[in-house]
Write a structure and sequence with these properties.
The complex is a heterodimer of chains A (87) and B (358).
Chain A (H helix, E strand, L loop, with lengths): L1 E4 L14 E4 L4 H11 L3 H5 E2 L3 E2 L3 E5 L2 E3 L10 E6 L5
Parallel strand pairs in A: 1-7
Antiparallel strand pairs in A: 1-2, 3-4, 5-6, 5-7
Chain B lengths: L2 E8 L2 E8 L5 E7 L5 E6 L6 E7 L3 E7 L7 E3 L14 E8 L2 E7 L2 E5 L7 E4 L25 E4 L7 E5 L3 E5 L7 E2 L19 E7 L2 E9 L2 E5 L7 E2 L9 E6 L7 E5 L15 E4 L7 E3 L17 E3 L7 E4 L5 E4 L7 E4 L5 E9 L1
Antiparallel strand pairs in B: 1-2, 1-28, 2-3, 4-5, 5-6, 6-7, 8-9, 9-10, 10-11, 12-13, 13-14, 14-15, 16-17, 17-18, 18-19, 20-21, 21-22, 22-23, 24-25, 25-26, 26-27
Classes of the chains: A alpha+beta (87), B mainly beta (358).
Amino acid sequence: MAELHLPPTLPPLFRDLPRQLDIAATTVDEAIDRLDERWPGLRDRVCEPGPVLRPHINVYVDRERAGLDTTLETRSRVDIIAAISGG
Amino acid sequence: MPRILLLVGTRKGCFLLEGDERRRDWSVRGPFCEGWPIFHAVHDPASGAIYAAAASEWHGAGVWRSVDLGESWELSSEGLGYSEEGPRLSKLSGLTVAHGRVFAGAEAPGVFESNDGGATWSLLSTLDDQPGRAAWNDPGNQPPGHLGLPAILAHPHERSRFWAVVQGIGIFETTDDGASWTPRNRGLRADWPVEDPEVGYCVHKLVMSPADPDRLYQQNHCGMHRSDDGGRSWNEITEGLPSDFGFAAAAHPHDRDTFYVIPLDPGHGRCMPDGRAAVWRTRDAGTSWQRLDRGLPQRDAHLGVLREGLATDELDSCGLYFGTSTGQVFASADEGESWSEIASYLPAISSVEVAVLD
């Protein structure tokens, strides 16, 4: 199970979505699929058609910048970050 | 006694201002929609629902909806997007409710509709057969703001007939529910070269008189214009106004000849001229104009009002409301004769709409 950390802007949009949870997935893309199954619409909040990550959404796996195809290890830590932007 | 609900879309969420029939005392609720930038919020008098078009820097575009006058909100973007090969949907910039449907205008330009109260959406049209259409999606061809298709005006009686405004391109009418479209820009002025005389006009705000669906008004980048034939032809009515430029405009709810506009400096500033706030009114369909400024600030008031920033209510003595780019809301309960500031410190305002609740 990968340990997933979500930005504070996401839980208000989905009932009972926590900031942190464990997910069984082999890639970042698959982890987002698992989230979208439990919280329909969540994929659309972090990805655009392509699919690609939205421009101001960054993902880190074990503190390294990652993409949708980045593979996950059993105890990987995944941070989905809403990048500093706007004002 | 009816209650008046103002729906105020701002750069930091949606706000609701509530007052009674006298329209003197107001309470403010909000921010709603998690502080997402709201481009346009509207009320559906048939269902009672509120819809707010939004686009988050982080989480994309969607429509928030509340069925309990703002007590709770839900966001949906299901179906709001183009195909994998299609253009990117960056924002939803205009909403319209009519005949049990909700329409959303999008950037890149397209019309989406919902038939289930905003729960799901589908693409109705991208106006593909129109002159010059291939260039519309290129950001290099778009005016500042990148609004795409910011407005859809529905005919009050004919379900399949409506008009769409494409920013920097013009107005298009459909009478077959979006299957085909006809440019409706004849008589408009452009201060730049136009390759095809049917398109290439910068329509800022298109308004229909509730008293006569053939009577349309528009604030254009280049002047004020009136149509007496549902947009088939336009006549300029700018003379008497201090500027031919502005964004916001509103029609009187009962009189087809009365119309309101907020002229702005046409340069980069785009604020009310000379730092003196005013709304302008015609009561003779644009033959003459009156400056309305009693109660509005008359010095150092460099206020901007965007295209959805002015609205009228439907009471006998109609109320007017406008919201500024610096977060003030001004209201008039006497058809614009006198004004008061009813909110002072909201975030930058994109839109103001009115609901009269029983």
